[in-house]
Amino acid sequence: MGNRMQDKIIIVTGAASGLGKATMELMVAEGGTVVAADVNADPGAAIAAAAGAEFVQTDVADSAAVDRLVSGVVERYGRLDVMVNNAGVFGGSPLIDAPNEEVDRMVGVNILGAFYGTRAAGRVMAAQGSGAIVNTASNGGSLPTEGMAFYSGSKAAVIGMSKACAIELAPKGVRVNTLSPGTMLSGMVPPDPEFIKVLHGIQPIGYAADPAQMATGILYLASDEADYVTGHDLVVDGGATAGRTAIKGAK
């Protein structure tokens, strides 16, 4: 790999699986010093150790825990260069039947988790005059799916919040962007061959992505190569939001 993260201090949340794990591994491979955070302590610590990263158990829905994560990194390393607020939960309950517990958890993790991480990192980065924040949203934030009203809403909120933060932090030398992944074969997808076959079939590009393909988008947004990119939502979804494919049999 390269050295695009050489000498950079990086936090990745939700790092125990899926896109977070792939992002952590890529950042380490690119020379970064990575602190991985996840609510799941045992798998998170083992996965981080295997990748060459430090691990801190963190529930991103807890603002105090996020503040401790960020302040601890700054105390140990003297600064924070990149904050990847990736932790998220997925849910697909129909609107009428959606339980409050599911909605509350999505607010806490998907929306407030991204906000708490952006706020804590933004304070540090604004004071040091530099930094990059990347928040994981979803193409569902701009292309909602039936039966997933609040999940789509939570990701739309992340995109809007991040754009507003980008405007506020730009004069202080801090960039804020979002990555909106499409369908990927992560821990959120049931290991059912027939279901996975369907997922492959509905992607214009012909297959559902591996999380590592999405991680490259986060790497770009976090890197100095994107030093003039802020307030942007980078969609990496194999063409899913580009438009509809042809209807077979239509004239």
TrEMBL record:
Q: Which residues form a coiled coil?
A: none
Q: Supply the Pfam families for this chain.
A: adh_short_C2
Highest taxon above the source species: Bacteria
Asked if Oxidoreductase is a keyword of the record, the answer is yes
Has keyword Membrane? no
Q: Keywords assigned by UniProt?
A: Lipid metabolism, NAD, Oxidoreductase, Steroid metabolism
Q: Tell me which family the UniProt entry assigns to this protein.
A: Belongs to the short-chain dehydrogenases/reductases (SDR) family.
**Annotated protein name in UniProt:** SDR family oxidoreductase
**What organism does the record attribute this protein to?**
Gordonia liuliyuniae
